[in-house]
Specification:
Elements lengths: L1 E8 L5 E5 L5 E4 L1 H4 L6 E9 L9 E12 H9 L6 H8 L3 H13 L16
Parallel strand pairs: 3-5
Antiparallel strand pairs: 1-2, 1-4, 2-3, 4-5
Length: about 120
């Protein structure tokens, strides 16, 4: 089994994920995806994807229940007050990219609200 992180769920039920260790893309057919949600971590049985290997080198043929739900961790962290994606990621021990993707999805679903913050690149 390989740990994956759900990154996208299409209206058709088809989903996509990345492997937690190598960040490789995983295609998840709708019959396998079930009710996965963006940001959730799962253990999955993967096989090489023979159809579109360049876009998604792996295909999930079995997914287990979530191991960690990123959304739940984000919500728990935000209960203590507003925070940046970087602060949340640091607090819950997740990558900034995963937290940012989950927050964007949660924003479009009206779960969180946002104000955009700007900072200088490489400014000390």
């Amino acid at each position: 089994m390989t740990e994956i992180i759900i990154t996208n769920v299409l209206p058709s039920g088809t989903a996509f994920a990345i492997t937690a260790k190598t960040q490789e893309v995983v295609f998840i057919p709708s019959k396998v995806a079930g009710q996965v949600s963006i940001g959730s971590y799962h253990n999955a049985q993967l096989i090489p994807n023979k159809v579109k290997q360049k876009q998604a080198p792996w295909m999930a043929i079995k997914i287990l229940e979530p191991t960690i739900n990123l959304r739940t961790s984000i919500i728990s962290d935000l209960e203590s007050g507003p925070a940046t994606a970087s602060e949340i990621a640091n607090e819950i021990n997740a990558s900034v990219k995963d937290v940012t993707n989950a927050l964007a999805s949660m924003f479009t679903e009206d779960i969180v609200n946002t104000e955009i913050l700007y900072s200088l690149v490489n400014h000390e």
